[in-house]
Amino acid sequence: MNTALTAAEQSLLENLDPAWTLDAVMALFEKPFGDLVFEAQQVHRSHFEPNSVQLSTLLSIKTGGCPEDCGYCPQAARYHTGVANSDLMSVGEVLTAARAAKQNGATRFCMGAAWRGPKQRDLDKVAEMVAAVKSLGLETCATLGMLREGQAEQLKGAGLDYYNHNIDTGADHYQRVVSTRTQDERYETLTRVRAAGLSVCCGGIVGMGESRQTRAELIVQLANMDPYPESVPINNLVQVKGTPLHGIAPIDPFEFVRTVACARVTMPRAMVRLSAGREQMSDELQALCFMAGANSIFYGDKLLTTGNPQAASDRRLFSRLGIEASTSNGVPAD
Q1: Annotated catalytic sites, by residue?
Q2: pTM score, two decimals?
């Protein structure tokens, strides 16, 4: 009889998170599909309510005109994608959207702006939005690009709970996707976010022509952050005509589920979120992702500039699967 413990079982016994190596994560990816999903489900049930999913809503508070060249992004000014530029929304407009999100069951409200980084006058306005949304009893999150010294502290003071700043992909693949900023610059912002006492929302995008090893490298980078992110969005590339990555071969659906499962096993207490690309997923694929440990979704009509399943459709899926919307803002059961 094989009595060897898996990495996840050893972690649970010691109540410690291991330092994950590329070889260890590749070994997870290469397990038989059912074995990997079973392991991820065991880890998930050890830390969270098994049939509860946290709902977040993401609102684009300033759309288009971004100076970056991220190959996946329809908001980059240099690409012709049909995305209309819009100015920063008013506090009143954001509050209206936040109230609707709360009424639909969301417990976290994220505000995203297409900037390389916010100017101070814009950050002052975003801070007002954060305070207003926080007053509704919602968790608050923002994704505004790179932050300068003191800006994370200002957002924290306004009541921000989470800051999202993805590292996108494995380090070796990064420069094939983005050239206007380095991955190290992304880590600088994440360091400022941590130092300010904010929770970190950080994940990546798969389906950008990367290899399985690159996906494993992404998981290794995330899992070895100290501490690893409290929230880990796994995005499936939404191909938009006019962006450099339009027309690339899509990721195999089972490989996407494997990525979710590896995130769950390596970051057992994180909220693993199905983010961009859920509009293109079948109900069956989403169900597999929930089995593999995903326990958070972006919920509502739009995810920045690309479609997202509407609230009623999500409620029907939850009912079919016996899943309930979390009311605890994703706090682990242990």
Answers
A1: 66, 70, 73, 110, 141, 201, 273
A2: 0.87
